[in-house]
Each structure stands twice: as C-alpha cells, then as structure tokens.
Amino acid sequence: MSEKSIAKELVNILGHKKVFSSLEDRIAYSYDGTFITGMPDFVVLPETTGEIVSVVEFAEKAKMNIVPRGAGTGLSGGSVPGENSIVVDLSRMNRILEIDRENMTAVVEPGLVTGDFHRAVEDRKLFYPPDPGSSSVCTIGGNVAECAGGMRGLKYGVTRDYVMGLEVVLPGGKVLDCGGKTVKNVTGYDLPRLFTGSEGTLGIVSKAVLKLLPMPGKRQAVMSAFKYLDEASSAVVDILNSGIIPVALEIMDDYTIHSVENYLKAGLPLDAAAILLIESDGREEAVKAETADIQKICVNNGAFLTRLSQDERERAELWRARKAVSSALVQQKPTKISEDATVPRKQVPAMIRRLKEISQKHDIDIAIFGHAGDGNLHPNIITDQRDAAEMARVEKAIEEIFQAALELGGTLSGEHGIGIMKASFLSWEAGETGVEFMRSIKQNIDPKGIFNPGKIFEKNGIRGGLK
Amino acid sequence: MILKNETKEWMDLQVNRCSKCGSCRDMCPVFKEVLVESYAPRARVQLIKYWLKGELSISDKYREIMDMCLVCQTCTVNCPNGVRVHELVLNARSAINEEKGMNWTIKTSLNMLKSPFKQEMVRKSLEVYSRFMRSALKSSGAVKYLPGNLGKMESLLPAVHKKGFREMHPQVITGKNGGERVVYFTGCMTQMFYPEIGEEVIKVLEAAGCSVHIPRTQVCCGFPDIIYGNIGEAKELAARNIDLFMGYKPDYIITDCASCGEALKHYGDYFSDIEGAGTFSSLVRDISYFLVHNVTFDFELNSMKSIVTYHDPCHLKRGQGVHEEPRLILQKIPGLQFVEMSAPDRCCGGAGTFNIMHYDMSMDIGAHKLADISDTGADIVAAGCPACRTQIRHLIEQYGDGKIQVQHPVEVLARALE
Q: What DSSP character marks residue A113?
C-alpha cells in the first residue's frame, strides 16, 4: 500500500481529527524520555477499544507495525517507533470508568494520567501506591506496559501488584479479557501478569482493573547523613531487620548531594558520603514509634546528622532535595542517562563502589541515587550527547554497569524496562533458554511480529544499544 | 530572551537542555485540550531543535504549532531542566516572520499601535462603530447571523468611550509634599477601553500622596510585537518610551497592565544597547506591588460586603513574580470576604489576541477558569490585567451567569476608599 492510500484508509476508519502524518507530527512522536529517536509513519489517537481494534486489523492488512504509546515518558525507548510504523497514542482514552469502594478496585482506560488517578482515589480516602517519578504526566497504560515502580516499591510493591484484570487488544484484533475483581484468582495462567511489563510487544491494554488500598493516615520523614557509605548501608539493613518496612528508603551519594546543594542551597551537609531519606506511613502512633526507631538506628550506625519532620511542611522540605535531583544534575551537563540496574539489597554498597570505579575508569560523571531499600539504584550518567568521544566511553561504562549488577546477583532493569536500550543485553541475564522461552511466547501471540518490534528482543541481531 | 546575533547559539543551548522528560505535558493548557503531543511544549522544543539543525523547514504546520502557544510561561517556570520554552517559541516566531513574512492581519493591527495618532484613529473608529453599528447589530438581532463565531467574538470588544483616557486628564496631578514622583504608563487597554481602571489608579496614587504624571505621547510597550516575533518594531517603541519617560526624572514608572509591566521590565534585558534602558526597567512597578512595597499603605477604608476571588494573570505572576500583593490589598478591605479559587494561576486563555486568532481553543481553555471562578460563589473576580479582564468578562457574559463582575484589584480598593 502506498503512503497516501494508508493515510486515506486511516482517516476513513478514524476521521481526520485522529490521524496525523505531517513531518512535524512525526517528529513529535519520534522520542520518549531517553535520547533515542525513531520516526513513525503515522500517528493515530483512538478513543475507544473498537477504534483500537480497527487500527490493529488495518495495520495487519497494510503490513505496518504497531507502536503503542502513553505519555512518552519511558526511560528505555519502549515507545520509540521503528520503521514502517503506526504510533497508537492512547492519551485520549483517559476516563476513570469506575471506582468501587466496597471492593476497593477501579476500572480505568489506559490513557489516564497516573497523577490524576492518584487525586481521584485519594479524594475518596483510597490509595493507589505505584508512583513512578513521572506520575504527574505518565499514564496507567504505560505503567502497565513497563511495569512501573517508584519510591513506594519497598513497602507496597510495583504496578504488577495492583493489576487485577486487563482488557487487551491482541495482534489480529481479537479482544482478550483476563483477571477480574477478586483478590484470589487461579483460573488458568496468570495472564494480567504476562501482559504487565510486556512493553507493548503482546497487545494493547485498552482497560485495566486496579487494586486499591485504604489511605494511610499519617506520613513522617527522616533524613540522616553519614560520613561513610558503609554506615548508611548498614543502617538500611538494620532498619529492615528491626521489623520496620518504611514506605520509602532513598539514598543520595556525594556527587548527587553536591549537585543538589549547588542548585537548591537547601543546607545539605557537603561532607556527607551519603544521605538517607526514609519515610514511614500508617497510624499516627505506629509512625511515631517507627520514626523514633529509625533515627536511633541511623545514629547507632554513625549518622552525624538526622532530622525528623514535625508536620507536612517539614516533610515536603525534607523531600525537596530528593525531588530536585534530576533538575540539579542537568545543570552540570545537558544529557542525563538514567539507568536502573538493580541488585539485592545487601549488595547496595558493593554496587555503589563498582559504580564509582566505573566512573573513574572511563572518566565520566555518574550520580548515584535511588531506592536503596529495594536495591533499585539509579546511576545517572551526566554527559553531553554532542561530545562523541565521551559518548563512546559512556557506552562502555553502561555495559560495565550491567555486568556489575548481574555479577552481584541483580537485574538489568528494576523498573524502566528493556525497550531498545537494553535489548542487546537481554541474554546476559535471561540466558539462551530464557530468551528462547520469551521469544516463543512472543511468536505465538504475535506471529507476524508487528507489535512493537525491536523492543525487548534484538532485531535481526543488530545491537539496540546506544546507536 | 536574547534577540541578537548570538540568538541561534542561545537557542541551541536551550534545546539541548531539554531531556524530553515530558513533565510539561501536564502544564500546557493548549496540550491539555488537544492531547496531541505535537502541541506539547516538549514537541515545540524538539521541532525548534530540528529547525536549528537544518532538518526541518518552516511550514504552515510548524507555524501553526508555534502560533498555538499562549506564552503563559507555565512550562518555562516549571521545567525541571530550566529550559526557557516560551522564549524559544518567541524566537521561533521571529525566525518564521523573517523567512515567511508576518501574518497580514497581525501586522496591520500592530502597526496601528505604533503612534498616539494612529492609536487614536483606531480608537475613534471603534468608538463610532460602538456608538452606531453595535447597538443596531444587537437590537436588530443581526449579530446572531454573523458568520462563524463572529457574533460571539464581537462581544470581546469592550465599550469604547468618546475620549481616550489620557485626553480626559491633565498631564500632571500634584500630590502632597514629599510624595513619590510617579509617571503612569497607561497602556493601550486603559487608554482605549478601560478608562475606569485609570481613574482608580489616579485616585489611589493621589490618596498615597504621589505626584502623578501622564505623558500623552507615550506609545505601545511593544509586548504585542515581542509576542508576535516582531522584535525590531518593539525596539523602536522601547526607545521612544525610554526617551519620553526618563525625561520626567521619575521615582517610579507605574503600570496597571500585567503585559505592559512585563515588557517594560524587560527593556533593560532585551534592548540593553538603548541608553537608559536598564534604569528605566529598574523603575517599573506594577500598581499592586507599588502600593504594598513603595508607599505606606495607611488608607482609611470603608467596609465592603463582597465576596471576592482573584485570578493570577500569567504575565503578573510568572512574568513578574507579583501574586501576593494583589491578595494583600484585597484582604485589607474590611468586610470583604476573600475566597481563593482552585488553580488561580491557570491561564484564562485570553492571551492578548489568542482569543481572536483561535477563538474556539481559547474558549475551551477559558471554560476551566469560568468553572473555577463560579465555584467560589464570588460576586467579584479581580485580575490585575486588562487582557484577562476582557477574556473573563466575555466568558462570564457569553457562557456564565453574566452577573459576576470583573475588576482590577485597584478598582476594588478605590471603591473602599470612597
């Protein structure tokens, strides 16, 4: 089919207000939150499951690839289009179809912005814990596709722990309903979990049934600063061994602390090797007792400074430094590559040491911060995309970061997904049998390979990597 | 914004700061209506990047995307990477004009603001229209049969008086001994459409003991030119205003208009090669800011039984950092009940002439503002910007209950002074 006739067909199916193909539109859909780009041929914005089905059926007929997209905030290139593709932007399917108080569930469309969903359930004193850093813009559909995490992962888990049921438009255009509203469900394979984190390679989520929790009553934060990295990490281990599971347990290294202080002038101790930010939530008495214990444990492990928030304003002030990390880092250099190699909790100090070595060896800046409680660190490489020589060193460093994480018993990706950026490393972790098994699933569901090709699996053996 | 030779270098630095995180999607009022990435601030930055690299030429679509920006600055102020998005857009508009020429309607309209004489001609003809045609259109019902949205748009035009504001007043009003010597930049809106705002500004300044000078030959602040990428013209206007105002040896230069204020305060930055530009800008004060910070606020105020809410104009809050002052003034009035609306700093969609150029989009954006205002139960909504005033009045009259009044905070204050 010629480009013109495809455009004409798409307009026939959806109407001209939902189909875009100008060069400017294609550029606007060529990126996500990474620095990787790829130009789509067409962009469509369906508003119903029926419209998604029509587009999928048509794509098959026209031999075009399908690239599902939420808000385009992903950090692994999962929604960056490859060649010969139609981007299916789900932003306009953004309704909350139901909030069921009695069953504590919600049914939502994929384009719903996660932050909007948070506000809606919190108005009803309910709680949806997954909170990826981009929650003010990212969408539930994108969160499901990438199995997004966030700071509350340690206590509350990640997106997959809240997906109870899904409606999925499958390759070929059939609509699959799986899971439901029951807490227990062992009827056949666990299909909602198969699709959660499948990065748009198996289908397009058109509806999701999500689990909700009661809203925790009280939140209090502790900030502690340490002169030595090992003190901070033994504090992390001690806190968790004492029976406390904080809602967040964040770490910032010296490079990050200096960048943030330089940017915010928030009065952070510049002589600290690490700062821990710890938050507890729940009933007031429990939170009080927990934060007192946390402070004690930090001091016992050598914290030279510790602060406890007394009210909401102080809590926000303590978090301000952590929330400003990304902004602070790009003041140093314009390109920020956020990795999310994750290790078992106990290996956090070992991983941080490896990262520092890698940074020195390749002469690149790496800021280390992230979710120390669940081992999900975010080494951020701070560089300049326009500096080709440095980018070559960056590429080598990234390989070594993955290697280090795997050697320490960890994983390539804690919460960003494999996408394009890590596709060439998949076998390092999954092994040949693992990759083969995953490919066989993909092959059976999408035999023609038109759903988000080039993601998760390397395409034709070409390195996804940084090219 | 740097509008000189090094502009491209500056733009290059800015576009490369964008990490494409997408947080601006949540902030852009235009994007939130269309939900198409092409109209997100992030996309504007990326398109400009392609243009800078020479991989994208200026097309109608490119122009449309750059035009569909309210310049509300929400993205710029909240960008985690500090990208000056709206200034990139203004530079892009400037480059578009350079290559493709300016939109004829805009060019002609801007040209009409260039001298007091031309401005007076426009005002006169609008006044004649207002006196004869307007009532005829309305009483005959013909207004309903105007094509497209013209009928509704017609009511965007405020009432026009027989004389311009400056012509109604002496050029000097001497205050109490020792009061500040202020020169009043009236702006086109107060001059042409809202003399009542000007009346109250004078009244309040007099009550504060100031000597008020109102130069009759002042010209447009240049903001519309800056917004439409017509930088050269803006500079000429700036030079004339600087020369005229500095001749008065002012303690302060006062404005009641958010947009004028932002433009005047930027003379020193944008046009640093004009002599006196920096000093001129340093003397500019928004009237609300001036009343709170530069004079002793000890007016005797009568009690007022009104519920009042306040809308933050983009160019006052994000443009000049003035947002506490108007609220402080309103809250000092005894009896007045101040109610904060939700999202008071969300753009009203007026954005100068955006509401004329893109009427439907502007009304969709304004609908949120109207709902937020109505939810407060206020009988007065205050806004320190005549352009917002026009938009909000239109929203209330065409789509709301028609009863809520829109006033400048100074007008509310002046009522309590009576």
A: B
With CA atoms as reference, the chain A residue closest to B16 would be A334
Describe the crossing of helices B195-207 and B409-417 by its angle, rounded to 10 degrees.
Answer: 50
- What region does A169 belong to: left with phi over 0, alpha with psi -120 to 50, or beta? beta
Give the bridge partners for A368, in sequence order.
A379
Interface of A with B in 234-263 (CB under 8 A): none
Judged by DSSP in three states, A336 sits in: strand
Rounded-to-integer distance, Cα A402 and Cα A395, Å: 11
Task: Bin B77: left if φ > 0, else alpha if -120 < ψ < 50, else beta.
Answer: alpha
The answer to whether residue A264 neighbours chain B at the CB level (below 8 Å) is no
Amino acid at A83: E
Spatial CA neighbour of B383 closest among B332, B311, B319: B311
Residue A75 burial (10 A CB sphere; 0-12, 13-18, 19+)? buried
Residues 380-409 of A with CB under 8 A from B: 384-386
The CA–CA distances, whole Å, from B132 to A381, B137, B182 equal 69, 9, 38
Contact B71, B1 (CB under 8 A): no
Whether residues B20 and A94 touch (CB distance < 8 A) is answered with no
Q: Could you tell me which of B33, B75, B27 has the C-alpha nearest to residue B363?
A: B33
Q: Convert the pLDDT of each residue in B317-366 to its tens digit.
A: 999 999 999 999 999 999 999 999 999 999 999 998 898 889 999 999 99
* Chain A contact for B82 (CB, 8 A cutoff): yes
* Residues B116, B186: Cα–Cα separation, whole Å: 12
* A56-90 per-position pLDDT tens digit: 999 999 999 999 999 999 999 999 999 999 999 99
**How far is it, in rounded angstroms, from Cα B169 to Cα B201?**
12
Instruction: Identify the closest residue of chain B to A111 by CA–CA distance.
Output: B35
Task: Name the pTM for this structure.
Answer: 0.92
- In what helix (H) or strand (E) does residue B248 lie, and over which residues does it extend? none
Distance CA B369, CA B361 (A): 13
Q: Which residues in chain A are closer than 8 Å to B82, comparing Cβ atoms?
A: 327, 330-331
Nearest to A42 by CA among B38, B148, B280, B113: B38
CA distance B418 to B7: 51
Phi and psi dihedrals of A335, rounded to 5? -100, 130
d(CA B374, CA B307): 12
